Amino acid sequence: MKEPSMTQAVTNSTQIYKVLLAGGSAGLAVDVTLFPLDTIKTRIQSEAGFIKSGAFKGLYSGLLSVMLGSVPSAAVFFLTYEATKERLRSDLPARGACQAVTHMVAAACGDVTSCLIRVPVEIVKQRTQTLSASSSWSTFLQTYQAEGFLGFYRGYFSTIAREIPFCVIQLPLWEFLKLKCSERSGQPPTALQSSVCAGVAGGLSGALTTPLDVVKTRIMLAQAGTEEATGSMVSVLHSLFREKGLTSLFAGLVPRVWLMALGGAIFLGAYDKTKEFIPDTFL
């Protein structure tokens, strides 16, 4: 049975704009809606700890940076994901293991490209969330003055190392669950079904990749020149385990699982639903 999907080839300009608009809208919706939960998760994972990082104070600190970055980041992710998926489908059978590999590779490619935008946004957002600065703009200036342009890409590879495992679990699982829903009903999945499938996939993926998220957060928040700031993911992971035990690697597990489950439901569900409202003759 051919996989039901609302997505079409992104080889013409109309489809490209549909993916960009739907992806950007989905990114903005999830980041703004779940921002307070993301702030709580970041503060729990920070070296200073939840209380010293601000506790429940200023839960929307850093929102401006996210609003500016979420739209282009999500748009680039979905454009790359859809284009890569369509290209691989033309070369590989659209079934079984080949289908899963197609979704995994497409998700990985989407993350590598979108992180070029997302990582600087994450740097500014997380440092503002932990109250190291009063606003996104002051965080931006402090980072640039202290570390220059490359300071905005500290943690790029640790972010990629977190995002790729997350997405190669989440996206194929989301596509698989949608396929099963379609096979059962005999029709393409509804937006609600797509959201539920995305929530299940996101929560599971978030739980499994929490240690990588903790390490990424520590590297991004570390003071310039410190061991954590200059160390590799492996060294930071080993240091955390040695000093604070296994539980430190799962700091923020509960808010992260909720964040990824709700985020996945909103992000992927909104993407599918928004594409329904953008007609082929939109542009």
From TrEMBL:
UniProtKB keywords: Membrane, Mitochondrion, Mitochondrion inner membrane, Repeat, Transmembrane, Transmembrane helix, Transport
Residue intervals passing through the bilayer: 59-81, 249-271
GO-annotated cellular components: mitochondrial inner membrane
Membrane disposition: Multi-pass membrane protein
Solcar repeat coordinates: 14-87, 98-180, 189-277
Chief location bin: mitochondrion
InterPro entries registered for this protein in UniProt: MCP_dom_sf (IPR023395), MCP_transmembrane (IPR018108)
Location of this chain's protein in the cell: Mitochondrion inner membrane
Record-stated family: Belongs to the mitochondrial carrier (TC 2.A.29) family.
Protein name: S-adenosylmethionine mitochondrial carrier protein
Organism of origin: Elysia chlorotica
